[in-house]
Amino acid sequence: MSPGDAAAEDAELQGVTWALTIEAPDALRPVLERYLDLARYQRADRKEGITRGELMRLLSAAPAQVRQLLETEGYFGAKARTELPQDSGAPSAGTQAATAPPATAATPPATTTAAPVIQVRLWVDPGPRTTVGGLRLDVHGELATAAAAGDGPARALIEQLRRQWALPNGQPFTREGWDDAKTAVLTLLRTEGYPAASWAHSAAQVDAQAHQAKLQLDVASGPLFRFGSFSFEGLSQVRLDAVLALRNVATGEPLREQALLNYQDRLVKTGLFDTVAVTYDPDPELAQATPILVRVRERSLQQATTGVGISDLSGPRVTLEHLHQRPFDLGWQAKTKLQLGRDARSLSLDLTSHPQPGPYRNLVAGSLSETEASGLRVISERLRLGRTQDTERIERTYYVELQRAFTRDLATNLVTDDTSAASVNYQWVWRRFDHPVLPTQGWGISADGAVGHSFATEQRSGWFSRGNARLTAYWTPGENWYGQTRMELGEVFSRNSVAVPYTLLFRAGGDDSVRGYGYQSLGPTDATGSAVGGRVLATGSLELARPFSLKHPAWWGAVFADAGNAATGWNTWSAAWGYGAGVRWRSPVGALRVDLAWGQQLRRLRLHFTVGITL
């Protein structure tokens, strides 16, 4: 071998470096930069090395790869060519179209010095994009038979399949869109009771000259599955009749996925289980009476938890909780909670029965609390007896309540009120949010009403009624903008001379009411400046938020305006305003909100913070 040949071989084996420029439409460039071998090898670890000959092979293969990649995006007539500068030590790969002719490698210069960076340019002409130019979607099997026999739900489901097909005429035809559209058809069938559905035939005939794709699809529905018997694994402390009471379907009904999810959700919401899984075997042989298997893992018989925190209501606080899943071997759940805070202290015991038909849960609750706010120390005693019903979107609670409110002026240490009441109450909550913990769309309403009789030691006793309603809405006014609206109205109906317990009257202010003011600091006061409850309440809030950066979508900045107040009557009501800005962290357990608000009446700033959503 001559010295010149040896030098040429050394140069051929020496690793080369190149810079790639892709001349293509902006929408297609990311696909090419990510998947094209010429681009991927450029990003590879330089220690692996690549010879000049290997680079030429990549250049030769690039046009064909471009065509394959762009076909997935709906471009079936793409053309591409690669170019090298004439002084790069390698010849140009030339113009390439559907396929690229083999590249001819020139003899590199005989040198042992480091090779310069080679400038490589890739030109791409995608041509017109192929669109859907025809669609035929046929259904076979039991679903088609039922529809032909006049079954309304079957006909509606077939119409829904065709109406919701994700690649209609005129839509760009892409491989991802094609796969997603077919998956969506099977998903809809399976959620509506046809879990054995499959594609009997699917084809996309592409006319590259006309730039159109004709779609032909035949789906085999399989049999309609129906609910059969329910069996349970993992039950020990919870009785079988309790979990059966939550069942929201009857034997023989179509086995729809949403019904299973609703049942699973009901089991989870009882608080009796750590995990719940509702499953079945999609065996067509069992379609007429499909067995349902429910696997649960019960919570520990007893649980104790502690917590620390801080809030507008109580200042710093410590919380101790104890939960017993079946005290005294009864079908009840007992929850004891002790909270010790700077401005609020409470002890409560809640007894809730395991689920009963309806599904309902009976409840017995008692509490004792002491709160200091707006110049008053309020001691409240409550005893409640009733039942509650939770469905997928609505919560209802009916109960009778005995309560006593004892208030003392902190400045004078004088008793200002000592009133008891017996009442019949109804609470109703309706939610429709896109996420139970971190909503961005939807709305919810909570309302409660009461009719009762008060028993006062100082003032006149008598009949009264009370109503309160709250609306919370989440909406998106624009891309990456999020809005929240909150409104609340309340009123106590009675003669002015009739005493009503302080805990049933209204106050405003705080992080969940009117920010910029202390908790329950807004409302009527007596001659000494101590708070007295208002008989009417109206508050409202408007907030806009936006992520600080799309790279960190969990952190938001927000601005807001709140207004509201409590008063002795609507003729004396006037709004107190609060404005401010804050930070939101959308954590997995709920949104952490930190707000700095200006109270217009007080003319000073106040810091507020809270976790979670309130309805």
Automatic annotation (TrEMBL):
Chain intervals with Low complexity compositional bias: 90-112
Cellular compartments annotated: Membrane
Region (Disordered): 83-112
Domain of life: Bacteria
Pfam families: Omp85 (PF01103)
Record-annotated Bacterial surface antigen (D15) domain positions: 401-614
Gene3D superfamilies: membrane protein fhac, membrane protein fhac: a member of the omp85/tpsb transporter family
Assigned keywords, A-Z: Cell outer membrane, Membrane, Signal, Transmembrane, Transmembrane beta strand
PANTHER family documented for this protein: SORTING AND ASSEMBLY MACHINERY SAMM50 PROTEIN FAMILY MEMBER, TRANSLOCATION AND ASSEMBLY MODULE SUBUNIT TAMA
Protein name (record): Outer membrane protein assembly factor
